């Protein structure tokens, strides 16, 4: 059965109507999931939808049940997130686990902070983007019922993350990686205690957001055409935070380390205008919590260990003919990691 | 002798894909995948350094193991057999990984190991020069970040 036929049957069962699928296409976005965009029509109405299906091979293996529970919970919060229509966590409908969501308005612009908008507009946008990260950390996950689905690692969040990623390394590595063994030993001996459990997105970045369109075309979206982005009218904003597949409970410093990772500066920083210190100040102002810079650094190191293991996972999947992209050895990440731990 | 040689064939395949095939690949997903393939073909130009690299890699691991007083890994295979060289290199790296607590406890061995790790990054013959790279070929662009 083709994916179009599978979608039509699935939606017909869900809606109780005959369903037409049109314009089905796989987008190039995303290395960890297949994204299929399409229009579905039933009962005289058109619905732009996106199906996200687990691929045969991926750089990340995650649990759709957790993602589904979190998306359902987020629907009751002010954090903009995709509207989940249907979930097939067992992979009965399309051969592999899949979620169907409304196609949210807005566009994905991974390098938007260093794009061609005026600097004031980009800084204003950065404040909105990372304000959303603080909003995620401020969610009351117990009130949202997420304690039933997610494990609270308590003060051992760093150790739990290390255990998880060491397990992933053992699962995916094809060759010995003594560089990672060395860095993991450093991380283990310097693991910080966690003082506050929050929801952690796990892969927060502009490329995992949808942004609304500017209304006046000057890039800041404030409607006055001067490009200063300072307005009261809202402006370009985050219409959806995407890719919740790595969401978990843990230390909010984990997300802070991820978004201030020097390797990802091109995505998260605006040189001289939006530096990690600005981001952390905004986060503190929004949450009322003061980040520990040593702890942020520890999570920055783990961020690059994670990226290394994700690359190795891609290598494994490629060698098994389960992935259409070649992932080579992450040796360049190893050099960065050595610098980060002062070796 | 053996013309076109491997280097020439890799370069030729890359040119054909970029000049002949890529302009006619319009769908986003295959275009993105093709851009990735072309970027990887660029990195294969140093393929002929692999045997020397494997020998160097094994020797450096063994030298660190020796400094730490750990068991080294011998080689009794054919020095022209690439598979045997690769197996020896894997065994030597595995021995270094396993000996990590011993190496970390020995300052000289630890220093030697960090020096080896850093030098290896520069010598590694099968990797792109950057982690977050962008390949642009005939109008198709693909940002190949780790995720």
Task: Tell me what the structure shows.
The complex is a heterodimer of chains A (343) and B (147). Chain A contains 10 helices and 9 strands. Chain A has 2 domains: 3-102, Phosphorylase Kinase, domain 1; 112-340, Aminoglycoside 3'-phosphotransferase, Chain: A, domain 2 (Alpha-Beta Complex), CATH 3.90.1200. Chain A is globular and about 60 Å long. Chain A has a 5-stranded antiparallel β-sheet with strand order 1-2-3-5-4, with helices on both faces. A two-stranded antiparallel sheet of chain A has the order 6-9. Chain A has helices at residues 3-15, 64-74, 119-138, 157-172, 178-189, 253-259, 265-268, 276-287, 293-319, 331-340; strands spanning 20-26, 34-42, 45-53, 84-88, 98-102, 198-200, 209-211, 238-241, 248-250. Mean pLDDT of chain B is 86; it is low at 129-147. The radius of gyration of chain B is 20 Å and the shape is elongated. Chain B has 6 helices and 2 strands; from the N terminus they run ααααααββ. In chain B, a hairpin with a 2-residue loop joins β1 and β2 (140-144). Chains A and B meet through α5, α9 and α10 of A and α2, α4, α5, α6 and β2 of B.
Concise overview:
The complex is a heterodimer of chains A (343) and B (147). Chain A is α+β, with helices and mostly antiparallel strands.
Count of discrete structural domains of chain A:
2
Low-confidence stretches of chain A: 215-234
Query: Could you tell me the number of beta strands of chain A?
Result: 9
Which protein chains are joined by the largest interface, and how many residues does each one contribute?
A: A-B, 39 and 38 residues
Strand content of chain B: 5-15%
Strand order of the largest sheet of chain A: 1-2-3-5-4
| Helix percentage range of chain A | 25-40%
CATH fold group of the largest domain in chain A:
Aminoglycoside 3'-phosphotransferase, Chain: A, domain 2
- Write the H/E string of chain A, N to C: HEEEHEEHHHEEEEHHHHH
Enumerate how many helices of chain B there are, as a single number: 6
Shape of chain A: globular
């Amino acid at each position: 059965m083709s994916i179009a036929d599978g979608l039509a049957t699935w939606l017909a069962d869900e809606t109780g109507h005959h369903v037409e699928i049109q314009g089905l296409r796989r987008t190039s976005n995303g290395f960890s999931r297949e994204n299929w965009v399409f229009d579905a029509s039933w009962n005289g109405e058109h619905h732009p939808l996106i199906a996200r299906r687990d691929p045969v091979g991926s750089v990340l293996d995650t649990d759709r049940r957790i993602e589904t529970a979190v998306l359902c919970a987020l629907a009751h919060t002010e954090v903009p997130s995709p509207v989940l229509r249907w979930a097939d966590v067992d992979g009965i409908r399309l051969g592999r686990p899949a979620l169907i969501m409304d196609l949210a308005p807005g566009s994905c612009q991974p390098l938007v902070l260093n794009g061609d908008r005026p600097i004031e507009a980009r800084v204003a946008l950065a404040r909105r983007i990372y304000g959303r990260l603080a909003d995620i950390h401020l969610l009351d996950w117990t009130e949202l019922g997420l304690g039933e689905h997610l494990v609270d690692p308590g003060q051992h969040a760093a150790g739990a993350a290390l255990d998880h990623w060491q397990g992933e390394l053992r699962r995916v590595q094809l060759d010995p990686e003594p560089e990672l063994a060395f860095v993991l030993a450093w991380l283990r001996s310097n693991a910080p205690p966690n003082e506050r459990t929050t929801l952690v997105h796990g892969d927060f970045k502009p490329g995992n957001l949808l942004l609304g369109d500017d209304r006046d075309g000057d890039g800041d979206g404030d409607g006055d055409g001067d490009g200063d982005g300072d307005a009261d009218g809202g402006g370009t904003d985050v219409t959806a935070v995407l890719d919740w597949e790595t969401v978990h409970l843990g230390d909010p410093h984990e997300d802070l380390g991820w978004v201030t990772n020097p390797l990802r500066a091109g995505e998260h920083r605006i040189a001289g205008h939006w530096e990690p210190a600005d981001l952390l100040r905004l986060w503190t102002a929004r949450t009322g919590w003061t980040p520990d810079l040593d702890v942020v650094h520890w999570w920055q190191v783990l961020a690059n260990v994670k990226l290394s293991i994700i690359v190795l996972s891609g290598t494994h999947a490629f060698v098994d003919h389960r992935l259409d992209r070649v992932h080579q050895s992450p040796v360049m990440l190893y050099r960065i990691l050595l610098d980060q731990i002062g070796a | 002798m053996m013309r076109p040689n491997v280097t020439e064939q890799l370069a030729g395949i890359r040119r054909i894909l970029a000049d002949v095939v890529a302009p006619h690949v319009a769908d986003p997903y295959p275009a993105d995948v093709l851009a990735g393939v072309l970027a990887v073909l660029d990195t294969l130009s140093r393929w002929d350094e692999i045997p020397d690299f494997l020998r160097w890699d094994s020797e450096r691991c063994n030298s660190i193991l020796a400094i730490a007083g750990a068991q080294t890994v011998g080689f009794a295979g054919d020095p022209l057999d690439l598979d045997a060289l690769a197996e020896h290199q894997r065994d030597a790296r595995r021995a270094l990984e396993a000996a990590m607590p011993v190496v970390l406890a020995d300052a000289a061995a630890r220093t030697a190991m960090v020096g080896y790790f850093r030098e290896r990054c520069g010598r590694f013959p099968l990797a792109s020069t950057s982690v977050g790279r962008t390949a642009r070929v005939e109008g198709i662009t693909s940002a190949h970040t780790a995720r």
